[in-house]
From TrEMBL:
The keyword Translocase does not apply. One of its GO terms (biological process) is double-strand break repair. Residues 300-489 form the 3'-5' exonuclease domain. It comes from Candidatus Defluviicoccus seviourii. This is DNA polymerase I. PANTHER family: DNA POLYMERASE I, DNA POLYMERASE NU. In addition to polymerase activity, this DNA polymerase exhibits 3'-5' and 5'-3' exonuclease activity. Residues 1-254 form the 5'-3' exonuclease domain. GO terms for molecular function: 3'-5' exonuclease activity; 5'-3' exonuclease activity; DNA binding; DNA-directed DNA polymerase activity. It catalyses: DNA(n) + a 2'-deoxyribonucleoside 5'-triphosphate = DNA(n+1) + diphosphate. Belongs to the DNA polymerase type-A family.
């Protein structure tokens, strides 16, 4: 008999998983977590009887005994309320009894059914981690954690409470329970309660012999609150004599109605769960009620000899796929030393090959294969084109192993599979995906290596702990691959993965490894220059303020602006401090206040100094003399790449300071930098997808699109046009892509809101197709929860059906922009994938070293510069066919600023 504490798990799943909504906006994260857990239990259990128990209502017989029982608990979160009914619906969809009884808690029903089942000769497993249910543990009755699957028995209860399951009621009666508002005895905690029970035997003896207690205060408290303790015992004691709504026989495991299961999962948009189902083939009858294939229990091996490693390699080659994960000493692959490598062949079948573990004194631990020998044995496998290598963020492993002359191919990446399937709907790290798709809580790095100052690098982790952590990473990666890869086909997203994301991995790995040369002396000189300017700005700001203050303190700045200076528009947040973000300061500056404008200047300069001129010098790799950024593929919901350590995509383009920083990025001697930038690609995509004839004609004729828009909207000739008019048209053109409002345009142009609104109305009047596109796109987003790019990428939008109008409006603006920005991201990815092979065929030695939004930067031998420009322009312009041409702006120089 398996008895599931449904009510307890709902809350646990809700707080454990990130927010999720189905297309109609209904929150479903708790439903998803619960359904995953239920499927796992049905798949892995051999139970004859199975039921899920729920609380019927908050008021039970315990409230009659003690009205304050659980009275302090807040109402459930608004996002959880609609999920209660859906969880019960999920239970019924899997043909599992869903049982509740008014006046009683789920725990009482569990206690009653456990007694009845034992009386009928059954073993009982209670699926819950609730401490109140631990009083039921006895021979034949165990508990199981619903998330980890770990059994909870007598020894676990004793470790947690200091008493056995038979004394949990007495212990809780003394200690009370703040979560349920059970009073207990004031001043008696769990530890003290356990000591008293250990000394006197049970609650009745503790109370009867309270006069014998040596501590005066404790003695008197027990005497004074004896009735509270007895009342508390009745509150925590579970009833095992509840009239059961369903007889024991009706809890027998039932066959699944597969149509019913699939219909429920489809209604919740749980497509990944549908892919897990072991559906019977046409004409076959399901032989089992299990909703998915069984998986093995973990069996991990520490590989310490070449003979055992050869056996794993042979099995991997025989089956044609293997999950791979490396363990190193650093997050940055350019600075990391390889410590070990793990392989997984099947769920629960994984190994860890330690290579460079040392003891506390730095001496190499015995029982490890020499790194050179192990890698020589692994290299043919990892480079074998007939064996698929599966990884989680496998780009990192590729870079680590490339340092040892191993080029991993072919590959699959579970992080990118998840990213293509879910985009910005949730994160794509291994821990989150394991919880989301497998209901499994992984071992964390801090669990094996420590945290804070006590944390050690992985080479100093003991081998037994290293095995559990490293082998699990490969094992979970393989399991995720089995879950996610089939969904690509059912969701028709295989093309996005196969042609955009997966082939980009080796391209990015090569770019990261190549890195970019920086002029450290130029950066140091800039730091000194910026420091001097910051000091001058600080002095000017203090003079304007009439007193010194910490410019970097939002609190002090807010008090100065809105209290001391009395400026209008101050708004305090939850902390009681005034908001002093850039939007607030920009508004004040637009109103003519000098001090906020100078603070904005100070902030920008301080950020440039700390982020670039100071940090970049420190980020030069001593092995290569270059800066190696890391490109993140699975972050932006639109498909755009981002870069970290350092972030090279946020250097200002239009400011003098930003241009000076770009001058620090230089070509190696004998080479130049070539910049190739897509011109107005997002506007071109808007003209294409919205099918705006006038814009398409202007682009095809090579006209000044902003001047043409100004002429069309404001009715002025292009010849002799006032530059201010063109600037307004440019602001509208680009603003429309981001769903700009009249308020936003007014602030950007420094004009009244009514005038900005009139400009936008005139724009839509001239180009009604753009408004149609915007409304169509928002409707698609509301219906599906996502919008799609020209190339089929799905951009998921959190909050598109949110009840909060501000949240919903933000999501709608994102929906308008996502197909445009996402389409541009897809186009440059296609170019990046195509170019390395094209350059190799042309015999060119130029290398792609940077990608920043719509721009690619190459390092090219001087003699090849012109040919390289021609090839890059031709290939980048032809990677996508739109109604209008793609145009490239190129430049060549000895540093990035000159080339740009």
């Amino acid at each position: 008999m398996i008895l599931v504490d449904g009510s307890g798990f709902i809350f646990r799943a809700f707080h454990k998983l990130p927010p999720m909504t189905r297309p109609d906006g209904t929150p479903v994260n708790a439903v998803y977590g619960y359904t995953t857990m239920l499927m796992k239990l049905l798949r892995e259990s051999a139970a004859d009887h199975f039921a899920v128990l729920f609380d019927a209502a908050r008021r039970t017989f315990r409230n009659d005994l003690y009205p304050a029982y659980k009275a302090h608990r807040p109402d459930p979160p608004e996002e959880l309320i609609p999920q209660f009914a859906l969880v019960r619906e999920a239970t019924r969809a899997f043909n599992v009894p869903s049982i509740e009884s008014p006046g009683f808690e789920a725990d009482d029903l569990i206690a009653t059914y456990a007694r009845l089942a034992q009386a009928a000769g059954a073993d009982v497993t209670i699926v819950s981690a609730d401490k109140d249910l631990m009083q039921l543990i006895r021979p034949g009755v165990v508990m199981q954690d619903p998330v980890t699957g770990r059994p909870i028995g007598d020894a676990d209860v004793r470790e947690k409470f200091g008493v056995g399951p038979d004394r949990v009621i007495d212990l809780l009666a003394l200690a009370g329970d703040t979560a349920d508002n059970v009073p207990g005895v004031p001043g008696i905690g769990v530890k003290t309660a356990a000591q008293l029970i250990g000394e006197f035997g049970d609650l009745d003896q503790v109370l009867a012999r309270a006069a014998e207690i040596k501590q005066p205060k404790r003695r008197q408290t027990l005497i004074d609150h004896a009735d509270d303790a007895r009342l508390s015992r009745e509150l925590v004691r579970l009833r095992d004599d509840v009239p059961v709504p369903e007889p024991l026989s009706s809890l027998a495991v039932r066959a699944l109605d597969w149509d019913q299961v699939v219909a429920f999962l489809q209604a919740q948009a749980f497509r990944s769960l549908i892919a897990r189902l072991d559906l019977p083939k046409a004409g076959e009858k399901a032989a089992t009620a299990n909703p998915a294939a069984r998986t093995e229990e973990p069996g991990y091996e520490l590989v310490r000899s070449l003979g055992r490693l050869d056996d794993w390699i042979m099995r991997a080659r025989a089956q044609g796929f293997v999950a791979v994960d490396t363990e190193t000493t650093a997050i940055d692959p350019a600075r990391a030393d390889l410590v070990g490598l793990s392989l997984a062949l099947a769920p629960g079948t994984a190994c860890y090959v330690p290579l460079a573990h040392v003891d506390a004194d730095g001496a190499r631990l015995a029982g490890q294969i020499a790194r050179e020998q192990a890698l020589a044995a692994l290299k043919p496998l990892l480079e074998d084109p007939a064996v698929l290598k599966i990884g989680q963020n496998i780009k990192y492993d590729m870079r680590v192993l490339a340092a040892h002359d191993i080029q991993i191919t072919p590959i699959d990446d579970t992080m990118l599979l998840s990213y293509v399937l879910a985009g910005g709907a949730h994160g794509h790290g291994l821990d989150e995906l394991a919880q989301l798709h497998l209901g499994h809580t992984t071992i964390k790095f801090a669990d094996v290596a420590g945290s804070g100052k006590a944390q050690v690098t992985f080479d100093r982790v003991p081998l037994d702990r290293a095995l559990a952590y490293a082998a699990e990473d490969a094992d979970i990666t393989l399991r995720l691959h089995r879950e996610l890869q089939p969904v690509l086909l059912t969701e028709r997203l295989a093309t996005v993965y196969e042609t955009l994301e997966r082939p980009l991995v080796p391209v990015l790995a090569a770019m990261e490894s190549e890195g970019v040369l920086v002029d450290a002396d130029h950066l140091r000189a800039l730091s000194e220059e910026f420091a001097g300017r910051l000091a001058a700005l600080e002095a000017e700001i203090h003079q304007l303020a009439g007193r010194p203050f910490n410019i970097a303190s939002p609190k002090q700045l807010g008090e100065l602006l809105f209290d001391a200076m009395g400026l209008a528009g101050g708004k305090k947040g939850k902390t009681g401090a005034y908001a002093t973000g850039a939007d607030v300061l920009e508004q004040l500056a637009a109103e003519g206040h000098v001090l906020p404008a100078r603070v904005l200047d100070w902030r920008q300069l301080a950020k440039l100094k700390s982020t670039y001129t100071d940090a970049l010098v420190q980020q030069v790799n001593p092995r290569t003399g270059r800066v190696h950024t890391s490109y993140q593929q699975a972050v932006a919901s639109t498909g755009r790449l981002s870069s970290t350590d350092p972030n090279l995509q946020n250097i200002p383009v239009r400011t003098e300071e930003g241009r000076k920083i770009r001058r620090a990025f230089i070509a190696a001697p004998g080479s130049v930098l070539l910049s190739a930038d897509y011109s107005q690609i997002e506007l071109r995509l808007l003209a294409h997808v919205a099918d705006i004839g006038a814009l398409k004609q202007a682009f095809s004729r090579g006209e000044d699109i902003h001047a043409m828009t100004a002429s069309q909207v404001f009715g002025v000739p292009v010849e002799g046009m006032d530059p201010l008019i063109r600037r307004k048209a440019k602001a509208i053109n680009f603003g429309i892509i981001y769903g700009i409002s009249a308020f936003g345009l007014a602030r950007q142009l420094g004009i009244p809101r009514s005038e900005a609104g009139a400009y936008i109305d005139a724009y839509f009047s001239r180009y009604p197709g753009i408004r149609d596109y915007m409304e169509r796109t928002k409707a698609e987003a509301r219906a599906n929860g996502y919008v799609s790019t020209l190339f089929g990428r799905r951009c998921y939008l959190r909050g598109i059906n949110d009840k909060n109008q501000a949240v919903r409006n933000f999501a709608e603006r994102a929906a308008i922009n996502a197909p445009i920005q996402g389409g541009a991201a897809d186009i440059i990815k296609r170019a990046m994938i195509r170019l390395p092979a094209v350059l190799a065929r042309a015999g060119l030695k130029g290398r792609m070293i940077l990608q920043v939004h719509d721009e690619l930067v190459f390092e090219v031998p001087v003699a090849e510069a012109d040919e390289m420009r021609a090839v890059a322009t031709r290939e980048m312009a032809s990677v996508a066919w739109l109604d209008i041409p793609l145009v490239l702006e190129t430049g060549i120089g000895y540093n990035w600023e000159e080339a740009h």
